[in-house]
Amino acid sequence: MPNSTRTLRIAMNGVTGRMGFRQHFLRSILPIREQGGVLLDDGTRVQVEPILVGRNEAKLQELCAQYGIAEYSTDATSIIDDASIDIYFDAQVTSRRAEALASAMKAGKHIFTEKPTAETLTEAIELARIAENAGITAGVVHDKLYLPGLVKLKRLVDEGFFGRILSLRGEFGYWVFEGDGQPAQRPSWNYRSEDGGGIIIDMFCHWNYVLEGILGKVETVTAKAATHIPTRWDEEGREYAATADDSAYGIFELENGVVAQINSSWAVRVFRDELVEFQVDGTHGSAVAGLRKCVAQHRSHTPKPVWNPDLPVTEPFRDQWLEVPANADLDNGFKLQWEEFLRDVVAERPHRYGLLSAARGVQLAELGLKSSAEGRRLDVPEITL
């Protein structure tokens, strides 16, 4: 008797946006559908059936026609109330996310969502409470932990390569054009605080789960937010005031004494191998990881440079590091997490990156903004439901 196939109907809200379309629809759900679904250990296949949701009907129709999708809707409420929908996915702007997620969970839907999950910590914690009471599987996108570079970095940590870990230094960002001469490569709402924009709100949620997932929980935060580019131009070429921070400089002290420094900026030009890089230093070795590549230098292979500003540099510092092999064929990080989430839904078990993890990210963003406004270091309290 052939093994069965179970189909999960997924309402995908926000697929007309850049992230929702490229990473979740085009590079995750469509490939899962094309490969015949997700194969479980018992031989069962879990196939996906996306239903596209958004406010722009013309774009939804175009996507359905181009990719062979049978259904779409501009009415998110009716989709959430549809008993045939198994999973609700949200990649909307942050200001509309919490209400939609709450409604979906109360309707008994499993949820998978981008972050931040809410604009405030109070809302984020309430979402975690709703999920717990609803008995559904809730997953939050923690994509960077599935990327090859950070997978390799985590393997080095787990294998004790670093000895006692001392610090992490991270650099993230690139130049986002103002929109007057060249179109901006990020949406204009990102630069308006009244619309939920700001790099601290956006990126500190990421840095929280990266630090938690690789090195340990954050105990204190010291941050400085800045709006380096005060005027930008929107998608219609209209000038507007940038009211949100476009750069953030953070120091995070972790539970195990590790000090992490991460700079985030949409007003910086890139002079590094990848758009984000993290360097971890320990007593026995160091490593630098980007999205895909990771290089390492062990204590036994560490050179002994001598400071001498009177002579030109002769040491090839970059050549003194060895590349860390993948040792596996690593798929798209978003797709990998989708597959893990779908397995959890079928097994009716919690996803390892749930709404409480997301709430800690929102908390760190709130505290980062407060630290910047007050000019002081702040403790990060434990969150309980």
TrEMBL record:
<feature type="domain" description="Gfo/Idh/MocA-like oxidoreductase N-terminal">
    <location>
        <begin position="52"/>
        <end position="140"/>
    </location>
</feature>
<dbReference type="InterPro" id="IPR055170">
    <property type="entry name" value="GFO_IDH_MocA-like_dom"/>
</dbReference>
<protein>
    <submittedName>
        <fullName>Predicted dehydrogenase</fullName>
    </submittedName>
</protein>
<dbReference type="GO" id="GO:0000166">
    <property type="term" value="F:nucleotide binding"/>
</dbReference>
<dbReference type="Pfam" id="PF01408">
    <property type="entry name" value="GFO_IDH_MocA"/>
</dbReference>
<dbReference type="Pfam" id="PF22725">
    <property type="entry name" value="GFO_IDH_MocA_C3"/>
</dbReference>
<dbReference type="InterPro" id="IPR000683">
    <property type="entry name" value="Gfo/Idh/MocA-like_OxRdtase_N"/>
</dbReference>
<feature type="domain" description="GFO/IDH/MocA-like oxidoreductase">
    <location>
        <begin position="152"/>
        <end position="287"/>
    </location>
</feature>
<dbReference type="InterPro" id="IPR036291">
    <property type="entry name" value="NAD(P)-bd_dom_sf"/>
</dbReference>
